[in-house]
Design a protein that fits this description.
alpha+beta; 2 domains; 4 helices; elongated
Length: 116
């Protein structure tokens, strides 16, 4: 895999090994580009650690078709950047319509997110 492919990967935190980080430090350490690359890798790893996972079995906003927050599917769960994330409810006529909802929010109109 090319380094440029890694930079465009959603899974960079999982893909980049400590050995690659060491190579970047040795080859580009102290340079503007080297510092940018290391910051990006570190940030990606931190995001991976702080992701919250929500099972569709709980029928919360994070796994609802009508929730507009940032998330990604992971099997039968939705991964959200953090439990403090917010997303608009887009169910017209629903009890929470156009409200900022947390991933843990819920209502009696839940519909499974199509990507799960």
């Amino acid at each position: 895999m090319k380094f440029s492919d890694l930079l465009n990967s959603d899974d960079i935190g999982k893909t980049v090994s400590d050995e690659i980080i060491k190579d970047v430090k040795e080859g580009l350490g102290g340079s503007f580009v080297g510092n940018m690359v290391l910051d990006y890798i570190t940030e990606s790893r931190e995001k991976e650690i702080t992701m919250s996972s929500y099972s569709k079995n709980n029928k919360g906003c994070a796994t609802c078709e009508f929730w507009g927050g940032n998330r990604k599917p992971s099997g039968s769960s939705a991964e959200v950047g953090s439990s403090s994330a917010k997303g608009k409810c887009y169910l017209k006529g629903g009890p929470q319509y156009n409200s900022d909802m947390s991933p843990e929010g819920s209502c009696n109109k839940w519909k499974e997110w199509a990507q799960l």
